[in-house]
## 1
Amino acid sequence: MRSLNYPVVIVNFKIYIESTGKRGLELAKLAEKAYKETGVCIAVAPQAPDIRLIAENTDIPVLAQHIDPMTPGAGTGAILAEAVKEAGAVGTLINHSEKRLTLADIDACIKRARQVGLISLVCTNTPEVTYATAALNPDIIAYEPPELIGTGIPVSKAKPEAVTEALQLVEKINPHLPVLCGAGISTGEDVKKALELGTKGVLLASGVVKAKDPYKILVDMAKACL
């Protein structure tokens, strides 16, 4: 199962030491195990150097954490869309709150992703930015208020009205565009509430990566999607 299906739980590995290298592969294998137990799509977004390791050793969707809006050629240090695609990624995050881009670069990254066959998942931080991003026609939007990221205070409970507003604004632009929510998601109940609001899933990080029992949390979140 390499393609994204909904509802979906996407775990951003960020640059936590707990999800780096071999530990990242171990965590991805737990995500794969949870997927096989529940049938719910679970995807992971590891660091660029770990994409191939995880993509070749698991059967779950792998996303890059970032791509740069560049084409192949003279450039140093950039993350090329073609490179993450060849490494085994099926998509990429764009404009995460910890890797902000200009609107022009977001647009360019979406187009670059589409050129090489990557799913574009654009992170947004307000309902208004979500509305503007919908007009750029990404494949997925993930709405994440940055003040709640990593707090354990779930956006689905702390700011449900903002999630609802974001969904309504996207509906006006593109009613078929899937919207996820994130920030503070750490339990199955948080995921259930997010889906009840109308999202197609969640994007989270520390709630799984930093958990004492990541597998238990992953299964709890996946079962909340059933």
## 2
Amino acid sequence: MRRIYPFILVVLLLVITIGTVISQEKQGPRITIEEPNFDFGFAPEGTFMAHEYVIKNTGDEPLEIKRVRTTCGCTSAPIKKMHLEPGEETTITIIFNSTRYFHKTSKAAIISTNDPTRPSEKITFIANMDTVKPRAITPKPRKIDLGNVNDFHRVDSVKIQNLSENDVTIQIVDYYEVFLEEPWIVGAKTPIIEGTSEGTDEPQYSAISIPVGGTATIKVSVRDDISPEEIIRASFTVSAMDKGGNELTRITVPVFGGGE
């Protein structure tokens, strides 16, 4: 009978080991946020700007997003889905109203979930409405007004001027695709990356070099499925880089219009 005890001990150890492995493999829901921080750069006061954050469930059980709370009344954070199956993703949009902001500010949204390891996660953004501080590039106009339903136009543009003492490369790094097609760059001489936008005979680029004092034109178009009756609050963000690819500054151009 005594010989049975070592066998029983081995079986018990195996059961414990297997249970531990199974429990380790079972993750539960896991929230993963791609790029939780965003910089709008310089932007005008009194307008709306928007950026989408991608939220993904990288766990093996459903992720429930219980609540999204912003840290300021100037910011809203609509989310497309509150329930994510394993491997599924959704987006949270930060919409910032810069009215009465004349300086650099940072805001956040707090996301509460059933992830036992991270029940509360945060997404943040920075925007700078300081018009005095010098910057490498500036847009003219600083914001795009598409007009209301009676005089609505789907395509508009801004000129980006190089204010620095060296050549710069500008590149579109973000746009709110809920309302906008991908913006494209025209009107400069040195293409860096050839674009893919369609519907025009003009040369189109997603990045371009601007000489000292020179300008380039960025065109933006509202999506065809957006009705002029719909209120549009969108934006796109442009980065200016030196010859080494280091970012000098970035700017955000609000795009708005539609409605009565």
## 3
Amino acid sequence: MYIKKIILTLFIALALFSCKKEIGDKMNGVSYSNEDVNNWIYQSMSSYYLWSTKMPALSATNLSSNPMNYFTSILYDYGNTDRFSWIDSSSANLINQLNGVNKILGVKLNAFLTDNAKPDGPIALVIAYVLKGSPAENAGLKRGDIILSVDDQTITTKNYSSILQNETLKLSFGIYTNGVFSSNNKSLSITKVELQTNPILIDTVINWSGKKVGYFAYTQFLISFDDSLRAVFGRFKSKGVNELIIDLRYNGGGYVTSSDLLTNLIVKDLGTRVNTVMNKKIYNDSYTQTLNKQSGTSAFVTNFQNEPNNLGNLNRVFVLTANNTASASELVINNLKPFMDVLLVGEHTYGKNVGSFTITDDQKRWNFGLQPITFKIANSLGQSDYGTVNGFAPNYLVVDNVLPFKLLGDPAETVLNKALNIIGGVAYVTNSTIQNINKHTILVQTEGLSDNKMMDKHDMYQHPPKHP
């Protein structure tokens, strides 16, 4: 019995020791338990989480659970009211993602049924865009290319969202002719690399029905490309652009400050609006009191600022939208609505009127990074009514399911063509082959997908407070 008691005591001690090290994180030679990390998570969320008063009481939570699971367990109505808060076991990885640095091939894709009559049948992945400087671009891939198998596996409804997750991928290609997908017996292997996203896919000026139409496609609001964005508008201004089309179909968000910059570059009569309200942020009661003490009302209000490359006299702007259009993209739309006509062409947007900032441990005891929703944002009129799964409804509904895809910026490209028709009132026909593109098939999901799932997050964020 005595020996059994010793063995039992040792077993319990070992179990407790294992629990203490369960998070597998050791900083400065000291190990911390799940309870330590989870207490920090709870206190951080109590300070900054937009719905902090809706969190369960600390005593009602399981502090011994895995921190990744614990974070999700304290979110308010997760999956419905809060569809957006997330956690990463590596704060460095999280910050890289927010700044557009990911290990990727560099493609966004749309998933199509290969046979409309077989909803569970094979799927074709059609490239929606290719990032500049990416392995995909270096391999010669372009918008409209069709992938029929990956690593010699047929793409199906069960694996299409995960089949591109390996680091090196063998892609086999096909063609789409007269409504039928078929193999073209071409394939290649591509290896992902860590890449800094260049979010400006294309900018061009289209001469259309006597108008000079500026068009650009933009995939993420990144502060490191703010000057590139200014340069785009500098080119538009120098060429006398008098109509503007912004393609945000594949833009899931990014930095609020970059979204504000784009608003400043577009809005009509900017000179009369400088230092007047563009938008307002709303925080939880606790953080509101803290900010009021630190900075007063300036902590909540963003004003218009002068931008020399503002186009100045536009009466309207066209925004190409899809279900990927989210967060900071929707913020531009909402910012501009009180001041000019904003015409949405495409599909309804994602519906995200809330944002976040990154929370890390200032004592550097562990590596977790939190990205909880910390604020809601409204325009100068106090409007913020697009935060539902239906987002903003388009003024002109156009589903981007016409194959083969035309290149972005091509006036014959389906959604761009619709916007140009509204501007000019005539259909665009370059040659007889355009008559052969009107072959429709069924999208498996309304949102595009990337070869790295982190590229598909929808977010709007700002710099974190000084002392999280």
